[in-house]
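User: For my dataset I need records formatted as: sequence, then structure tokens, nothing else. Please produce one.
Assistant:
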Amino acid sequence: MRLFIGIPLAPAVVAELAALTERLKSPDDGLRWPAEAGWHITLQFLGSTTPQQLACVTAGLRQIRHAPFEIQLEPPGFFDRAGVFFAGVRLSSQLTGLQQRVLAATTQCGFVPEERPYHPHITLARDKGGRQGLRKLKGLLAGVAEFSSFVAGELLLYESFPGPGGSRYEVRERLGLLPD
């Protein structure tokens, strides 16, 4: 199974992002727009996971103590080389602290953290190839307002099911954030 750990979005934030993506989408834009139900902030991608590792990860995540905290989205942006359009997430000490606790819990289960710096975001669209869609999208973004903030109150352990139209995600475990 392919797993990752993330933070779900508040309904108000999903509604704001949905309004933005509906305004930007077009049938021939050359982009793949993930379903709103799959929007999240990834803390760690685990990838292929054995049943033993799943048990270890779940036990480790249940031990994490971290108070709920505010998350602020930032204006949309692009990872040009990866062909991704995203909503930014402001990096805060609380978010970084939670991500570090998640990494510590999963390292004990044999997972190796990525070496590149953590860049939290919400993937809104992926280019199907050619980058034409992203270039057109950049011209449509003028005047995008700030997004609402929300309180992160839980972690989710997701299973990813890749498919031709994009990945589908199922929640394997919900873990509420609890203060020390």
